[in-house]
């Protein structure tokens, strides 16, 4: 078995180690004896979505997002078809925002790809810090780091999780990220997947199922270091809460 991972615009969308998500997927596949090939697509290069099993769109600054959106618009129908066909996508922060209708910044409105019917508007302050979520899909909390000016309004889509600690989609909804078919959109950097191996395997299993059919259950790994990293963030936030209560 083999999965092909498309890393879109690594030169422009790569904040806070988002490319680590690729290394994590490659490693977790290799540990199960499954081949992984990563194809990088730089600005202006044609993306053949029909040959991809997983797509990663990382986060970026407003300027880069605008450029990336311009390139992707030329292939938006292929990208939409891939998503509707159950293609796996992990879109982080700026990448998440640009799947939506628009991102209104302080100076302009960046028209998004409109693959998801969601809107993002820049708020007064940036939403920054560690973040902890709970999702019914996963046993362990999802942890990460967020730093975004945009507030994303997801309407009736299910979120990736509910916020235990941090800001999430728009600070007030108590929700973070989005789930649509096999797309996960999220504000979580860090990178996301190494500290959240369950999320990584969820995406890989979805990609394997789409490609090979049947129920694809990956062999479990011990993930001691991964769980330790996850717990570190959760405990860090718990200590902060109890410190505030004591003061
Ligand atoms: N430029 C976007 C924002 O500030 C996304 C930032 C990011 O990807 N971290 O909201």
Structure keywords:
247 residues; alpha/beta; six-stranded mixed sheet; 7 helices; 32% helix; globular; binds glutamine
Describe the structure.
The model has no long low-confidence stretch (mean pLDDT 95). The longest helix is centred in the C-terminal third of the chain and has 23 residues. The N and C termini lie far apart (55 Å). The protein has seven helices and twelve strands. The strands form two sheets. A six-stranded mixed sheet has the order 2-1-3-4-12-11. Strands 5, 6, 7, 8, 9 and 10 form a six-stranded mixed sheet that branches. It is α/β, with parallel strands linked by helices. Helix content is 32%, strand content 29%. The structure holds glutamine. Glutamine (GLN) binds next to helix 2 and strand 8. The site of glutamine has 12 residues, from helix 2 and strand 8.
Question: What does the secondary structure layout of this molecule look like, with pairings?
Answer:
Blueprint: E1 2-8, H1 20-30, E2 35-41, E3 54-57, H2 62-73, H3 76-84, E4 88-92, H4 94-97, E5 102-104, E6 109-111, E7 119-134, E8 142-153, E9 161-165, E10 175-176, E11 178-180, E12 183-186, H5 192-195, H6 197-212, H7 224-246
Parallel strand pairs: 1-2, 1-3, 3-4, 4-12, 5-7
Antiparallel strand pairs: 5-6, 7-8, 7-9, 9-10, 11-12
């Amino acid at each position: 078995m083999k999965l092909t991972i498309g890393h879109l615009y690594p030169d422009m969308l790569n904040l806070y180690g988002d490319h680590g998500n690729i290394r994590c997927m490659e490693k977790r596949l290799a540990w199960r004896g499954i081949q992984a090939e990563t194809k990088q697509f730089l600005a202006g290069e044609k993306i053949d979505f029909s040959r991809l099993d997983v797509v990663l769109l990382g986060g970026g600054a407003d300027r880069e997002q605008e450029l990336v959106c311009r390139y992707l618009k030329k292939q938006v129908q292929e990208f939409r078809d891939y998503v509707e066909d159950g293609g796996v996508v992990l879109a982080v922060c700026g990448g998440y925002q640009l799947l939506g209708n628009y991102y209104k910044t302080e100076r302009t409105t960046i028209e998004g790809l409109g693959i998801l019917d969601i809107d993002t508007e820049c708020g007064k302050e940036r939403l920054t810090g560690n973040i902890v979520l709970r999702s019914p899909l996963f046993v362990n909390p999802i942890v990460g780091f967020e730093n975004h000016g945009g507030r994303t309004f997801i309407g009736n889509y299910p979120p990736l999780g509910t916020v235990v600690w941090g800001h999430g989609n728009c600070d007030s909804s108590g929700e973070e990220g989005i789930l649509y078919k096999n797309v996960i959109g999220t504000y979580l950097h860090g990178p996301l997947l190494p500290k959240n191996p369950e999320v990584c395997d969820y995406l890989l299993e979805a990609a394997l199922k789409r490609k090979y059919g049947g129920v694809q259950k990956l062999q479990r790994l011990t993930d001691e270091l991964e769980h330790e990293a996850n717990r570190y963030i959760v405990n860090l936030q718990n200590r902060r809460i109890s410190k505030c209560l004591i003061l």
